[in-house]
Amino acid sequence: MSRQGHKDAPQKLMTPEEIQEMCPILNTDIVLAGLFNPGDGHIDPYSLTQALATGAKRYGAQLRVRTEVTGLQRRPQGGCGRAHQGGAGHTHLERRQRCRNSVWNLCISGFWAREVGSMAGLDLPLVPVEHQYMVTAPIPDVKRLKREIPVLRHLDGSFYLRQEREDCLVVGPYESPDTMKTREDWLTRGVPPGFGKELFPSDVERLSPHLDAAMELVPSLKTASVKSVVCGPITYTPDVLPMVGPTLLPNMWLAVGF
């Protein structure tokens, strides 16, 4: 709360009674207090990226999908020019905008950020790991809710939980360095060419400690069926904070490491 004055994002402390009213499915007997961020939430990635693409094209951007990026040309005035493009493979969006007679570039390449960054001369400290989350089958207690519950983050249990559609829940862990699985082959050889929406084999055993804590907080999970466990790539920085903002290169900006 002492840091809140630095951001234009309201938040407040909540009592267990207020939490119970907002999230009736919780066992608040084990809750001491909560921190509510009304601006927090979750998004559908496909809808969001399509909206950004529509807005970018409206401002004159050219989007090339299913295009492998094999190199970037540095411009004398800063930033990068047109990408050398190969055949089908990686999908990469490079956004450029004229601003006061200059060109700025934004690297938003997800788990390809290390590769794309290196093309521009950046050595980005990003580590690819396997992140997994569980999706439940419909839960009657969730279906009876009158409104969607906020996204929950349980610090002691190290997991997040949110509502999926009107009657399911999603539980995902914040794994510790001792348990998280890094993609060593991606670290040494890079992302496999052509990798897109593929997933990795799940490892429910790694989820178990987080699910035990989630079942204590949300008793309905004890009898819920598992619909699916999704495991895919995500990149973290060494301090687990995202890399957002300008780089040491002129007119080169980052939004990676989330």
From TrEMBL:
SUPFAM superfamilies hit by this protein: FAD-linked reductases, C-terminal domain, FAD/NAD(P)-binding domain
A Pfam family that the UniProt record links to this protein: DAO
Domain FAD dependent oxidoreductase residues, every copy: 8-258
Composition skew (Gly residues), residue ranges: 78-89
Location of region: Disordered: 72-92
InterPro entries in UniProt: FAD-dep_OxRdtase (IPR006076), FAD/NAD-bd_sf (IPR036188)
Name the record gives this protein: FAD dependent oxidoreductase domain-containing protein
The species this protein was found in: Timema podura (Walking stick)
Top-level taxonomy: Eukaryota, Metazoa, Ecdysozoa, Arthropoda, Hexapoda
